[in-house]
Design brief:
2 domains; globular; about 15% strand; Rossmann fold
């Protein structure tokens, strides 16, 4: 979906997501700042869960009920943008599936799916943003979250924008496209398997010797931050929106007692 051809700024609905709202509101504020800096009119409709946990657990009735609320709340905007490839992927890829046999909602689900984007993809692919006004000193490595990478093709976009952050040097870890072991309810149902996966991921992160770990999904970041902390690591963990917006004055994700981690 191309950017509006009219001269008016695009009207964007910020889909904050449950985890951001409850655990890390600074990500939502950073997302709004980035969108406004790019010339968008940003609004935050009343919202609940997109239904992904229910969908992934096979509870289609609950997933459809939540999706219908989402569709009603977010219709009427030019775009819907989320700081999460996972939640954006649920709307963009799975809402049409949920309602494909519903003559009353199929078209509306398709329309809302078409205009839903992950944050960095929206900035780069739709708005044509190539650089941001932010600075932070140090070396960072980037984890490619599964849904954003495989459902939405988010890989080059965050790296392109991070390369424009003054003072930041990107280094790639081994197996950066491999799952961190979170997977939403997967980490709850299969804790031992999840821990094995995130242990390997944490070892790859440490081996890259970064000052900072960056990713685009808060669930993945919380999972990796928890494991790194238990391993005694001093690597700071941050969401890509906070880094790109220059909002790194808040403690890193998972920092104990709200204290800033430094390597």
């Amino acid at each position: 979906m191309a950017a509006p051809t009219s001269s008016r700024p695009p009207r964007v609905a910020l889909f904050a997501t449950c985890l951001v709202d409850l655990m890390r509101p600074s990500i939502g504020m950073a997302t709004a700042k980035l969108l406004e800096d790019a010339g968008c009119i940003v609004e935050v409709p009343s919202q609940t869960c997109c239904g992904q946990p229910a969908f992934n657990s096979g509870d289609r009735d609950t997933a459809r009920a939540l999706a219908e609320q989402m569709i009603t709340a977010f219709e009427g905007y030019d775009y819907i943008v989320a700081p999460s490839g996972s939640c954006a992927g649920q709307v963009r890829k799975h809402y049409p599936e949920l309602f494909k046999h519903d003559p009353n909602l199929a078209r509306r689900a398709d329309e809302i799916a078409e205009k839903t984007y992950e944050l960095t993809s929206f900035l780069v692919d739709v708005l044509g943003v190539r650089k941001v006004d932010a600075s932070i000193s140090g070396t960072a490595t980037y984890h490619d979250s599964c849904s954003g990478l495989r459902e939405l093709g988010v890989k080059k976009q965050p790296r392109l924008l991070l390369q424009s952050v003054e003072g930041l040097h990107l280094t790639e870890m081994n197996e950066n496209e491999v799952c961190c072991g979170f997977g939403g309810t997967f980490a709850v149902k299969y804790g031992e398997i999840s821990d094995s996966i995130v242990t390997k991921k944490a070892e790859n992160i440490e081996a890259a010797e970064p000052d900072m770990l960056i990713a685009g999904d808060l669930g993945c970041l919380m999972n990796m931050a928890g494991k790194l902390s238990r391993m005694g690591s001093t690597i700071a963990v941050r969401h890509v929106a906070e880094v790109l917006a220059g909002m790194t004055d808040v403690p890193p994700i998972g920092a104990p007692n709200g204290q800033e981690k430094t390597r």
